[in-house]
Amino acid sequence: MDPSEDWSRIHNVDQRARAVIVTHDAIEPADAAAPGPRARRTVIDGGRVEVRQRGSGSEAFEADTSTVVWPMSRAVAEAFCDATQRWKTSEGARGTARDDGRGRTRAETCALAKELVITPDTRVIEVGAGIGLLGIVLARIGAKRSTITDDNVRLLSENVSASGGSRAECKRLRWASPTSANASEWDAVQAFVETYVRENDGERPHLIVGTDVMYSQSRATCRALASTIAALADDDTVIIIGFEDRGDWGQVAHFFEHAETCGLRGEADPFGEDDDDWLLIRLSKRGDSKSP
C-alpha cells in the first residue's frame, strides 16, 4: 500500500508502529543504566534515536494520553538536528566559545537556541512531551541537560531511561495557572521551578520546547500552558512551540492572549516547505518581537 493512502500514517508518521526512529549524523552515542539492582552502564549507539509508542492497536494504549508520536515532534526534532549539525561543522562551534575555557555566556547559548542550535551548555525543558521523542533527541545531539516533562510519565520514563542517556531526565509536570480551580496545582508548578533552579546552578532553562501541545484545548488549558511556561522562563529563555492546525486556529489566538498576560511576546512563522498548516512559535519574556 502507498504510505500516503495508509490511514495509520499522518505526514508519513506511523502511529501504529511499535517504535519511532529518528536517524541523523548529529545524534551522539550515549550511556544508559540497565534496569535492576546491579545496574551496569550500557552504550547507546549514535546516529539514531528509537522510542517506543503504544498506538490504538496496542493492548497498552491509553485513550486521551500521549502514547503515540505526532508529526510535529519528529519534524522539529529533525530541524534541531539539521541546525545543530551545520553549527558543529562550521566555525560557529569554535568561534562563539570563550577563550578562557568557561564555555559560552547565557546570552550566547540562548541566541543559538533561537536558531535551533543545541550546544554543550544548553539546558532544555520539554513540556507536554508525550513519548519524549523531541526532548530525547535534544539530549542526544549535545544538550547539557534535557528535562522532559508531561503529566502522564509512564511510557515517557521508560523511553527516557532506554534512549535518553545520562543527560536526559523525566519529570512529572502538570500545567497550571494562578487561577486554577485547585490551588495546589499552581503550588506544584512553583515548587517544580524552585527545584529545577536549585538543581541547575541557580539558572532557568536556556530553551523551552513543546510540540502539539495545543489541540482543541479549553481556554483554561491554554492559560495553564502559558502560565507554566512563563514560570519556567526568565528574560533570556527561548521558547519554541510547534503547532499543527487541525481546524482549530482559534487555539493560537487563545494561547497568545494568555501568553501576553503572562509577559510573553513572540511570533508564529510557517514551518516546513510543504504544509501551510504548520507553525513554529517563538516566544520570550523580552518582547523583542511582535505578537500576531
Automatic annotation (TrEMBL):
Protein name, UniProt field: Nicotinamide N-methyltransferase-like
Query: Source species, please?
Result: Ostreococcus tauri (Marine green alga)
Q: What is the lineage of its organism?
A: Eukaryota, Viridiplantae, Chlorophyta, Mamiellophyceae, Mamiellales
